[in-house]
Amino acid sequence: MKGRLIMFRLNNGVEIPEMGLGVYKMNAGKEMDDAVRYAYEQGYRLFDTAQMYKNESGLGEALEKNRIPRQDIFLISKVDNCNQGYGRTIESFGESLERLKTDYLDSFLVHWPGQNRERMLDTWKAMEKLYTDGKVRSIGVCNFEVCQLEYLLANCKVRPMIDQIEHTPFMHDEKLLGFCRENEIQVMAWGPLLRGNLDEDEIGRMAAGYNKTSAQLLLRWNVQQGIIPIPKSKNKERLLQNISISDFEITEEDMKRMNAMNQNKRTSYDPMVFDF
Ligand SMILES: NC(=O)c1ccc[n+]([C@@H]2O[C@H](COP(=O)([O-])OP(=O)(O)OC[C@H]3O[C@@H](n4cnc5c(N)ncnc54)[C@H](OP(=O)(O)O)[C@@H]3O)[C@@H](O)[C@H]2O)c1
């Protein structure tokens, strides 16, 4: 094992690696099998998929083919928008387990908040049931903004343990991060490598100052503020590069410089507007 990952702790005491591998747009078969093998060999222990990615089966097969012990990894999936609501959330969770060839998940997340508050709470009640029945070790949400989290917290029995959001220096919402910190909700960063658009001059110059790549600087910037990035790569060298971020520290001044780059620049929907 090459990367040395430390563990964070969720608000229910469950441990979670400080970074992981996202598999959005990773193709089932050789591409997934090889990427999962390289990742595991290099020290990755967290794998993030979703019903929406249509590759849960591919990930399940890759984990099986590579004989990766289930208890060694933190496995995450997400309920698809079309499966929200109490009954379908429970049923589709079972379908996810089958596709992933497992009998529990380490985390199950609500993929999008949507604008229908009643549906949001029905979905969350199902998440609570899965959690209290011991089928999932933690539950959480994705793309929830402060007011959506406030509503959920005011109406839930089990508090969300994770909010997975787009988080880069260009999409850095201090208010949301502060709210999550105060409420012990672990933030997880999706799209941490600017979705591959890494030809950003200022980031590149700063990274060169540390003798690191832009990808490494962006990932280190996340973990250094207690946020779990889940970069996607299918490439052996890039997988290794992305996990090799524990041998340097970004100065406080540079952290502030990166935080100040925020432009509220999203690469996906605005959670306050997007509905389904
Ligand atoms: N909850 C949500 O709503 C949500 C939304 C989007 C994504 N996600 C999750 O977050 C994960 C990460 O986000 P993402 O996949 O959209 O974007 P990302 O991780 O920011 O970027 C992935 C892209 O960067 C490339 N890349 C990886 N490492 C690199 C490196 N060291 N140097 C240069 N290029 C590199 C990859 O290409 P190669 O594969 O060829 O290396 C791929 O094209 C997803 O896989 C998914 O699990 C969640």
TrEMBL record:
Keywords: NADP, Oxidoreductase. Gene3D superfamilies: NADP-dependent oxidoreductase domain (3.20.20.100). It holds the Pfam family Aldo_ket_red. Residues 27-262 form the NADP-dependent oxidoreductase domain. Substrate binds at H111. SUPFAM superfamilies: NAD(P)-linked oxidoreductase. The keyword Cell inner membrane does not apply. GO terms for molecular function: oxidoreductase activity, acting on the CH-OH group of donors, NAD or NADP as acceptor. InterPro entries: AKR (IPR020471), Aldo/ket_reductase_CS (IPR018170), NAD(P)_OxRdtase_dom_sf (IPR036812), NADP_OxRdtase_dom (IPR023210). The active site is at Y53 (proton donor). The record marks K78 as: Lowers pKa of active site Tyr. The keyword DNA-binding does not apply. Belongs to the aldo/keto reductase family. This is Oxidoreductase, aldo/keto reductase family protein.
